[in-house]
Write a structure and sequence with these properties.
The protein has 85 residues and is of the alpha+beta class. It is built from 2 helices and 4 strands, in the order βαβαββ. 21% of the residues are buried. The model has no long low-confidence stretch (mean pLDDT 89).
């Protein structure tokens, strides 16, 4: 079962941006971002990950990275502006 995570470099998603990732675990979400995400040169340990349960229903069956709100499935709320950390 895939779950939704927000992954970002550094201490704040507002400083360097963030992506929404659908993966089985937080570790797998970070791994996917290190291999295929916008921060490919980042170390795994430089990334932070937070669960976003309200997006689980949009996960589907394939792990993936959503970089912009336009890539979200229809009906999904925007993810970046919805992050009160």
């Amino acid at each position: 079962m895939l779950r939704a995570y927000v992954v970002y470099p550094g201490d704040s998603p507002y400083a360097g941006g963030c992506v929404l990732v659908f993966a089985e675990t937080a570790g797998k979400a970070k791994n996917l971002v290190v291999k295929k995400g916008p921060w490919i040169s980042s170390a795994y340990t430089d990334l932070n990950c937070r669960r976003r349960k309200k997006y689980d229903e949009y996960a589907g069956d394939t792990p993936r990275i959503i970089e912009t709100n336009e890539e979200l499935p229809e009906g999904a709320p925007i993810f970046f502006d919805d992050i009160p950390f």
